Amino acid sequence: MKTLRLLTTALALGGALALVGSWYLNGGPWPAHADLTSPAAAADGSPLYYRDPGGAPAWSAVPKKDAQGRDYLPVYDDEAAAEPPKLQQQANASRKILYYRNPMGLPDTSAVPKKDPMGMDYVPVYDGDDTDDGTVKLSPGKIQRTGVKSEPAERRSISVVVKAPGTIQLDERRISVIAMRSESFVQKVADVTTGTRVSAGQPLMEIYSSAIAAAAAEYLATINSKIVGGVEFYGRGSRQRLTNLDVPEPVITAMEKSRVAPVTVQWTAPRDGIVLERNAVEGMRANPGDVLFRIADISLVWALVDVAERDLGTVAVGQPVLIRARSFAGRTFSGKIAVIYPQVNRDTRTARVRIELSNPDVALLPDMYVDAEINTADASPVVVVPDSAVLDTGARQAVLVDKGEGKFEPRDVKLGRRGGGYIEIRDGLKEGEAVVTSANFLIDAESNLKAALRGFADAHPSSDAAGGHAHGEHK
């Protein structure tokens, strides 16, 4: 109290001297109500002096206004009344004030109340707000203003979709070629052209071959012979020669029933499919090995897609695939991965994957461009959090755990697969723990700020103590 009285007396004398100086410089008369005996006046309840309402270092012995028209504030000889209302609240607060930090967020702290160069009061930090356990505490008002939202970590399957381009190709197992095994002549060709859809057993052409005619005559002579000894074995050999010449089985069966060797042999389609190639022309000569027809069954086709090297670890045989053809907007085709080719293209850094697709309406055609979406979801559930909950700096991945009552704990985690808006947490978080999913960057910034303030306070304890001592003497 003695120190306060000395201070107020000095301020009053300073204000009086300032007033006298102003009167002397301006040449004006001394105010009639001026009283330089401020301590005596203060005894009857009158103000000791008047201070600037904005906190500037300016005082007056008499009431006055500042440049903005605001009244100067009276200061009484009362220690409780002399303190600002904010300091009164702090003094009456039940919680302990640890220190005061810069209101603009600068790394500057003080052990006692003070103002910054702009006249703003330093912000008090209470016991419990700034802990050493790594947590950050926010007031309910700040949480509401920043829009902080939390969700619990849960177990669920990660749905990761790998996208890759590709083309439609024929199933190599469903292609048939009609070629002669002996020198032949095409006598007649059916009304079949390239692109025609044919059925198994449908006539394609009639050919004449001297080798087939001789083998047929020999076989018929054998089965018509009345010789008993060795006839059965010899007949089987003659029939096998017809089979070796690729004579269709229905033709051989018809010969056995009619016991007549045909002059020409009718060739039929070996399978259902599309005629991809037609080289047979009436009257032409066909040498052994010449391809006359090529037929492919496209009711089942392949989609050969190129998967990026980085995605090969998530792709496996049997995974379901969704195919979208660029020719059919809005239509999808379903299939499964059948083969992953064991080679990576050194130029494109991709590996080829084969997908088998059902094509009953022949909508998918060879060499058609398609886009594949491979679902690499694992049936086993894992601990996941939303994408927005992870703070990823490249070298560090962390989440903010909501501890309740406005406390948030930054925690390092190890990530796994990503997909469907979720990220797998392999280590650092348990199922059911709530993590911040919205405004987490603001909380992280608050955490970094408080860590910097703590480091600054630890690095400069003497300056704060000295400042507090000086401030206490001033008070």
From TrEMBL:
Superkingdom: Bacteria
Domain called CusB-like barrel-sandwich hybrid: residue spans: 176-296
UniProt entry tagged with the keyword Transport: yes
Keywords: Transport
InterPro entries recorded: Beta-barrel_RND_2 (IPR058792), BSH_CusB (IPR058790), CzcB_C (IPR058649), MFP_Cation_Efflux (IPR051909), RND_pump_MFP (IPR006143)
The CzcB-like C-terminal circularly permuted SH3-like domain, residue ranges: 383-443
Ranges where the CusB-like beta-barrel domain occurs: 301-376
Pfam families from the UniProt entry: Beta-barrel_RND_2, BSH_CusB, CzcB_C
SUPFAM superfamilies given in the database record: HlyD-like secretion proteins
Family: Belongs to the membrane fusion protein (MFP) (TC 8.A.1) family.
NCBIfam families: RND_mfp (TIGR01730)
Record protein name field: Efflux RND transporter periplasmic adaptor subunit
Organism: Bradyrhizobium denitrificans
